[in-house]
Please model this.
Amino acid sequence: MQLPRVLCVIGLSLAVSPAFAQNKVAPVYAMTADGDIHVATDGHVSDYHLRSELPPAVSALVDRAVRGWQFEPVIVEGAAVNAKTALHLGLIAEPQGDADKYMVRITEVSFGEPSVRKGRSRPPHYPESAVHAHLGARVLLKLHLDDSGNVAEVFPYQASLDARANSEAEANRYRKLFEEASIRAARDWQFDLTETLGGKPVGTWAIVPLVFGVTDHVPGPHESDGRWRAYIPGPIHDVAETPAKSGAGNQELVALKEGEARALDSRFHLKRDVIGTTL
Model:
């Protein structure tokens, strides 16, 4: 793909670090995009809408690629139905030996991600003993959402502390406290579902993160972006009768932010893997 003004086309600042300028190393760019896809009974994309505001050149590439996708027909009670789902895309633009030439590839695709309904996500109570120990955590929960978006079941998936405990027994105790606080809060949450089959919304299983942090400073809405935060991964607790990660790798789960969710049992399946394909 030829992008004669790549820094403007993909919507990034023209500022380049001295190291890049001296060594003439072209940077790599990454972005995400979200939208909705309508799939016909034969699996072709009948309609598509991009909610994210992308630079026109990139938006045109994404639009052309997505409209050409072919899905396995979505089956309900033995018959194919018209269906709709949410789309999340990860994109990367890599230099091709020339400062003006970039190639855009797909790095991530997921469908059916539910979103927490505004005003229906009461935050968890911070365990008092963890506050006194100045200990934080990141908890991943596995939720079963019914067809109305209510939480029907909730299980702990992984709790990771942001500092080492004095012993593994102590770490287990704190992880359990964070998990229990997260579960109590999540039971009352409600979600907006993003998959409909034959015009009817359907529930799903999803992974959601909750982050606990002890600080005297209240961060702004985007203040955590671009900042490293260390966690010591805790053990994964999976329940045999619940869906597996369904293609969601550990890196994708680590990248999930508070307020986001990753669907585990989307009914939408592409006939051909598009990860790594060039737009």
Remarks:
- The chain is about 20% helix and 30% strand.
- The helical segments are 6-9, 18-23, 56-67, 128-132, 168-186, 250-255.
- Residues 1-17, 217-223 have pLDDT under 50 and may be disordered.
